[in-house]
Amino acid sequence: MKIHQDHSRFKEIVRGKIKANLRKYVQKGEMIGKRGKDVISIPIPFIDIPHFKYGHKEQGGVGQGDGEVGQQLAPGAVQPGAGHQAGSAEGDHALEVDVSLDELAQILGEELQLPNIERRGKEKIIAQKVKYTGINTTGPESLRHFKRTYKQALRRQIALGAYDPKVPVIIPTREDRRYRSYKLQNLPETNAVILYMMDVSGSMGDEQKEIVRIESFWLDTWLRHQYKGLECRYIIHDAVAREVDRETFFHTRESGGTMISSAYKLCKEIIKADYPSSSWNIYPFHFSDGDNWSADDTRFCIEMLRNDVLPAVNQFAYGQVESPYGSGQFIKDLREAIGESENVALSEIADKDAIYQSIKDFLGRGK
Amino acid sequence: MSPKSLSPRLQDLKNEIEGYAKRLGLDFFQTVFEVLSYDELNMVAAYGGFPNRYPHWRWGMEYEQLSKGYEYGLSKIYELVINNEPCYAYLLESNAEVDQKLVMAHVYGHCDFFKNNFCFAHTNRRMVDEMANHATRVRRWIDRIGLEKVEEFVDRGLSVENLIDYHAPYIRRNPDPKRTEEESKSNERVEGFKVDREYMRGFVNPREFIEAQRRKVEQQKIKSKKFPERPQRDILLFLLDHAPLEPWEFDVLSIIREEAYYLAPQGQTKIMNEGWASYWHSTIMTTHALKDYEIIDYADHHSGTMGTRPGSLNPYKLGIELFRDIEDRWNKGRFGKEWDECDDLRARRAWDKKLGQGREKIFEVRKHYNDVTFIDTFLTPEFAIDQKLFVYGYNEKRNVWEIVDREFRKVKNKLLHQLTNFGQPIIEVADGNYDNRGELLLTHKHDGQDLKADYARETLKNLQSLWRRPANLITRYEGKGVMLRYDGQNHSEKKVDL
User: Fold this and answer.
1) Pick from A51, A65, A72: which is nearest to B455 by CB?
2) Which of B195, B224, B253 is the last residue of a domain?
3) B367 and B284, same structural domain?
4) Is the peptide bond before B86 cis (omega within 30 degrees of 0)?
5) Are residues B37 and B106 part of one domain?
6) In chain B, what residues touch A58 (CB-CB under 8 Å)?
7) CATH no. for residue A331?
8) Residue A60 and residue B391: Cβ atoms within 8 Å?
9) A34 close contact with B: CB closer than 8 A
10) Quick one: which of A367, A363, A280 has its CA closest to A105?
């Protein structure tokens, strides 16, 4: 249909708008509207054509129905542009467009110029998949192909002259039976896991956690785009670490001190137990305000990273969220000790504006 | 698109309904029905009812919204009909028979209205072909100039498409004869230098000198002449006449203007047109076409169309009720001096002169009125109370919409105000050489409502790029005069005294 041309042009424009405003969306993460399973709706400003027109709230109008003077109209009862032009009225509100997460990731990749991730062990990681490809003369009855069997029987009966169009009874024999047959296919499959770690000690405030939440949304989106079947695990820590679900991860607030080593230790254990590095792409992300308990603990952290974590993972990422209470020492120590390693990404996130750059720091190497 | 001709069954139904319509006195062009699947219907609806429009993303946006609305089961398009000769109308393939009948009956109402209402007298009755030609023309420009450029220009053009003179087709705006007279009277008397002695005149001011002076004065006069001489409403025409447009831009803009003028009467008669069509589908269906077993479905769909919500006015409902009210009044003779002067409520309620002129009257009304005059003439206090009409407004303090008033005068005024000029601000071009710098100056005739500021600025930007010189707009915000300006790079505004 002709309209498809206009429709795809419209979609292209929407994409362009999202791209142009990406920085804003990245900052606000949450403003991205309702999220369906694989689709989110994004409000975009000014997609309609501007006219000289009255401000809507100035205008008011004439309505019909019961009610006293001064009675409030039900919310949503007043449609922008309502009145005699109902139907052709353009809305006052921003247009909401649905974008699939995959497409959003593509846009993110294009705009931030993110390289595609080089998977590890692509060759090694293999899954077998059953695919029905052909027809066989033997097989279980549950896979019998009725149509083909019937055809075969019909063909045989006609050839034998046993077919009577007036009494079209077809009786398949054993030889007529046909079955679906399958083949096992080897599919290279890549598995990936993100291990989120976050410092929930007293010095991490709501604002800091908000930053982590927004950032993790974009990291999820991108990695999900790169790997089908991405798993996420969540670890929170103050002086001790524990594994939690997503909800708890973002909403817990503890008080007390910080021992980063506790988180790394748990991380190490999880990797060892569930994610053998030969078959998994592993991405630990750690967020903290950079305030560790002691220099000793920091040393212990670095040792663990060097010996156990870094050899096993694709990339270890540390994001330091600025907070008024943190000293911000930890990133300096890390930079000094392992900053040179090629699978370490370090990023300082001063505020929401910095999320954009930080995503680039984390994902920009294609690891 | 593959329009299917009517199935024999639908053809029979069409003949049946057409017969009723004719017998009841409707007068219409030949009407062609086509059956479409829902996405084809969505496409046609996105194109504003036409099978073919120039390429533009806006149709795509419309299509997306319609498709979504349909897929989620939120909305369904019942009827689409084009003002054309022959009239084209579309039926949704999957509709039940009773719906098809209802739509057909409704469509004949529209066709009769298109043919007979005065607003449509000047419209192009070959618009289907014309729109297709427009599409071809724009496509050709796209091939030559490039999609992006043409699209950007169309965006700009559409942004000012409402700046036309809605009354232009019906009147002639002559230049004011009095003023031209005055101008010729005050014809220049060039004096030259002062001469003390009469016999020296020829030497001090030789004839050639006087001539040269006269020419200079004349030229100055032409220069200082404002253009346009008087404020002009048809800003699109003004741009076509005076803006430095490329040939392709001129062509595209004139297409936009032509389509805007073609579509204008439909906006000017929305209430009447839908009311009239609803009146007739209701009459035809309930008195002739309905089978017993279809009653429930019909009632369901009819009431769906007539449904009202507090915050909006349903043109179908208002229109049909007003037509019925008129019919009733003229049947019973509830009009004229005697009726107006009767204060006795009981007498008024029992008033029935058995005139039986109702039908005749509404046929007359559908010919000679548009929405503004229709409401102005026939909306009575009784009707407003019966229909529970009210004015609503925004309460800034409570941050909600609320009912403001039920007083008849206010309701009527608000309604009329909404309908005048489509409820759009009246904007004129006052000067095409503002400040003697070739700038464009528009004025907004402020009537108590401010413009939507961000839209106004964006529109001004578009005007600037059409005019290629700074564009200015004088309006009011919160009671104070303001001149908005866009000079090609920056927006600015300054106070002006009005």
Assistant:
1) A51
2) B224
3) no
4) yes
5) yes
6) 449-450
7) 3.40.50.410
8) yes
9) no
10) A363
Which of A9, A52, A73, A97 is the best mutation test for B, with the most CBs of B within 10 A? A52
Q: Specify whether B184 is located in the same domain as B275.
A: no
Q: Looking at CA atoms only, how far is residue A63 from chain B in angstroms?
A: 5
Range 247-306 of B in CB contact (< 8 A) with A: 267, 270-271
A2/B contact by beta carbon, under 8 A: yes
Residues in chain A: 367
All residues of chain B having their beta carbon less than 8 Å from the beta carbon of residue A7 are 59-60, 63-64
The answer to whether residue B2 sits within a structural domain is no
Nearest C-alpha in B relative to A49: B159
**Alpha carbon of B450: minimum distance to chain A alpha carbons (Å):** 6
With an 8 Å Cβ cutoff, are A77 and B270 in contact?
Answer: no
Nearest Cα residue in chain A from B406:
A69
The pair of three-digit structure tokens given for residue A163, joined into one six-digit string: 């077919």
Taking a C-beta distance cutoff of 8 angstroms, is the pair B391, A62 a contact? yes
Tally of domains within chain A: 3
3-state helix, strand, coil in chain A (%, to 5): 40, 25, 35
Same domain, B40 and B109: yes
Q: What's the pTM value of the predicted model, to 2 decimals?
A: 0.74
pLDDT by 10s per residue, chain B, length 498? 445 678 889 999 999 999 999 999 999 999 999 999 888 899 999 998 898 899 999 899 888 888 877 777 666 766 889 999 999 999 988 888 999 999 999 999 999 999 999 999 989 999 999 999 999 999 999 999 999 999 999 999 999 999 998 887 777 665 554 555 445 544 556 667 777 777 877 777 788 888 888 888 777 776 666 778 788 889 999 999 999 999 999 999 999 999 999 999 998 899 999 999 999 999 999 999 999 999 999 999 999 888 887 777 889 999 999 999 999 999 999 988 888 888 888 888 888 988 889 999 999 999 999 999 999 999 999 999 999 999 988 887 887 888 888 899 999 998 898 888 777 889 999 988 888 888 999 999 888 788 888 889 999 999 999 999 999 999 998 888 999 999 989 999 889 887
Residues ≥6 apart with Cβ < 8 Å to B416 = B372, B375, B376
Separation between Cα atoms, residue B273 and residue B266, nearest integer Å: 8
| Chain B residues closer than 8 Å to A82 by CB | 311-313
Contact B61 A47 (CB under 8 A): yes
Distance CA B379, CA B432 (A): 42
- Domain assignment present for residue A117? The answer is no
Q: Is B163 among the domain residues?
A: yes
Q: Are residues A29 and A169 in the same domain?
A: no
| Same domain as B441, residue B326 | no
On whether both A172 and A288 belong to a single domain, the answer is no
Residues of chain A neighbouring B39 (CB-CB closer than 8 A): 1
B496's tokens: 């002006």
Q: Domain residues for A134?
A: 126-186
In the beta sheet, which residues pair with residue B31?
Answer: B87
Domain end (from A166, A186, A206):
A186
Radius of gyration from C-alpha coordinates of chain B: 28
Whether A283 and A353 map to the same domain: the answer is yes
CB spacing of A64 vs B318 below 8 angstroms: yes
| Residues written for chain B | 498
Residues of the domain holding B461: 425-495
Q: Which residues of B touch A68 (CB under 8 A)?
A: 403
- On whether any CB of chain B is under 8 Å from the CB of A116, the answer is no
What is the distance of C-alpha B373 from the center of its chain?
Answer: 14
Summarize pLDDT for A130-167 with one digit per residue, the tens.
Answer: 888 888 898 889 999 999 999 999 999 999 988 888 88
- Rounded CA-CA distance B105/B81 in Å is 12
Q: Give the single-character DSSP code of A37.
A: S
Question: What's the pLDDT tens digit per position in B374-394?
Answer: 999 999 999 999 999 999 888
